[in-house]
Amino acid sequence: MGIQTSLDAVREADRLIDAMRLADDLAFEAGRTGGVRTIRLLADAIGSDDQLTAIAATHALAEVVDEQADALLSALLSSERGFLREHAAGALGSRLPRADTIGRLVGLVVGGGFGGMVAQRTLEQWSPQVPDLVAVGLEGALLGVRDVAARYRVVETLGLVRGAVATRPLLSLAEDAREDERVRVAAVAALGQRRGDRRAARAVEGLCAGDGFLAQVARMALVDLAAGGDDTERSADGTGSPASGLTVAQLFLHADIDADLTQAGSGDNGGIATLLVRLGDELARTESVDRVLTLSRGSVAGAIESVSEIAASESGHHYGRIPLLSEPVASADAWPLRVAARRGIRRILRASGGVDVLHLRMADVGSLAAADVARELDVPVVFTVAPDPHAVIQSLDLSGSVTRENFGEVDEREHYWFRSRLVQELAADAAHTVLFPRPSLERDMRELVGIDITAHPERHTVVPEGIDLVVVDRAVAEARAHADGAEASMPLAELRELVGELPEARRSLPLIVSVGRLHRVKGMATIVSAWAESDLRDRANLLVIGGNLEAPSGDEREQLALMDAVVPADRRRDAGLILPGHRPNDTVARWVAAARFGLPGLSSGRGVYVCGSLKEEFGIALLEAMGSGLLVVAPDGGGPATYVERGVTGFLTQTWDGAQLGAAVDGALRASGSEPSEDRAARSRRTVEKDFTIQAMAAALGSVYGGVHDDEAALRDWSFAAR
Q1: Staple partner for 387: which of 274, 448, 638, 719, CB 3.0–4.6 Å?
Q2: How far apart (Å, rounded) are the C-alpha atoms in residues 695 and 700?
Q3: Are strands 577-581 and 608-610 parallel, antiparallel or unpaired?
Q4: What is the pTM of this model?
């Protein structure tokens, strides 16, 4: 095609997502042609106002084998444009180490954030080739860095350098009582990775006394030092589980997942947390799976406890805690926790005695770290592929919120480019991929993600998500009974109290309900705006369930501020807006069911459920609402478009457009209010019962896991026979 033609194709692509995909062709042509002219063309593109093309050109430059290309990439580490610094740091990971670049990469590590994580990865990739240079550069930085958080990052990076050159300063930092505790924690955690080093073991043992955080981390480091070698996890036949069934691990790092789902809807504890609890329980009941390990964040003490519990287990559903050695942060800000996440995941998988399959579902730091561990421990990965963030980019492109001229600035916050590439890498490396149903699945995978699922169909399986209808049916029975005169259960009594605080004139209105995290992708503020700025406000009360209102995250504060701009906090009750925050899943199920039947004396029935997500790959809360018999409003795309019957069981719309969303809610409210019978509600439930139960999902995934295990066992048999 030629370098100029490839560059023109990126610049002239109609859609941002197309330009991102064409960047691969540009990189290929840059590596193929090389030369001064190629470097000159790419340098010109990097300096242009077209930020997306500038990013594409930066990565293409990394494919050019030339000293001048190295020098230009190194110079970009000092660019005034932050997004170029980040992408240059990532691109350098594929290059040979340069002594004059190490200092700039260390500077990015000191600065922290996503760029610091990317620079840390590059230094880690370079360290086996030039350990002395990397270690000396990091030690030198410690002489001038006083900020505790920055020193922590530098010491953590030093811990990634293998050999005595890094062990000596780590020992000194760990034992220095004058050093800040957090910096010592970074050193101790790193020493825990130096198995076989007696000096490291003695130092860690000496710090275990007491109940402080440093002592807890030291005890956890001892667990790591005592772990068996990487080749001891599997049995002689190449598997790591009892012969009767598989051990499957599943991961979602950004939630405090517990069996009772007490944190559902808070922070990043969304539908995925609910799904993993229900799915893990059900998988452990299938014939093919004996044991399920669900990994999520937790405390150091919880991590040590879960290691012991999992090591002693042979069957059932167990929870492994991954201590991130940090306060909880939103998923978009969690990338700097990569090293702690990787160590925690490795710790649990080693303690298990062997995992047959690791299922990853997100293009996030948890999956990035887990993929590294899976390669290290030779664990096959099943990856759920979805066009995320691809579909979000497409929606923002259509709305005009993201353009070529601001893509880099948005990417610096949302990391769309990195996450898109991570999806492709995880899918390419996976032993098997799982897909959600979509109206145009093959086309979307090809055009949005760049994956042709028809090339090797045996490696892909479409598996719809599912819900536990037992929970939903129990909630419906309680809500129906209360509407018929029975005493309210505790969850319904709490809802009555909330609705009872509204003005008396609003107590005959139905409820519009939405459940989910307070995050821009979930569109909660858009729902509030669509309701408040139309006559919907006079015809229904709005109940938005989700969010940690006592200690909101940055994303939650953003959504609350947008809501307050439309309905000030001190006027919510008068307006009919109810924001109770997150609630346990069982409580939410009863509140959703109450929207259908009403609360005697406080709220009429025939309410509706609204999902305002920019993208919804499937929609657990939507399925639960349909299972409850509610009419729903959902995004016209992704998973919902495959199971919501337009105009029958729900209304599909462009949820990113407030006017269209409001019109859809209006239509749903009118349709629900005029229903002559319960036929439509029964039809909604039958849709869920037929195809979208947690039991059906577990059975389908159990078959996938069994197939992956059999294929891997055959490969190992072949490799053993070939020796």
Answers
A1: 448
A2: 9
A3: unpaired
A4: 0.88
Are 610 and 616 contacting, i.e. CB atoms less than 8 angstroms apart?
A: no
Report how far Cα 197 is from the mean position of its chain's Cα atoms: 36
Q: Which DSSP letter does residue 582 get?
A: -
CB hemisphere CA count around 447 (13 angstroms) = 12
Buried b (16+ CB within 10 A) or exposed e, 532-569: bebebbebbbbbbbbbbeeebbebbeebbebbeebbee
The burial of 215, by beta-carbon neighbours within 10 Å (0-12 exposed, 13-18 middle, 19 or more buried), is given as middle
Mean pLDDT, the chain, integer: 92
Give pLDDT, residue 241.
46
Q: First and final CA of the chain: distance in angstroms?
A: 44
- Which segments in the chain show pLDDT lower than 50? 230-242, 265
C-alpha triplet 668, 270, 121: angle, nearest 5°: 135
Q: What is the CA 515 to chain-centroid distance, rounded?
A: 18
Block residue for tokens 């940055």:
554
Domains and CATH numbers, the chain: 98-226 (1.25.10.10), 246-462 (3.40.50.2000), 469-692 (3.40.50.2000)
Rounded to whole angstroms, the Cα distance separating 35 from 74 reads 18
- Alpha carbon distance 150, 165 (integer Å): 21
- Which residue in the block uniquely carries the two structure tokens 């990189």? 27
Nearest residue to 134 (alpha-carbon basis) of 144, 143, 142, 126: 126
Q: What is the pLDDT, as a whole number, of residue 262?
A: 57
What is the Cα 675 distance to its own chain's centre?
39
Backbone φ/ψ region at 546: left (φ over 0), alpha (ψ -120 to 50), beta = left
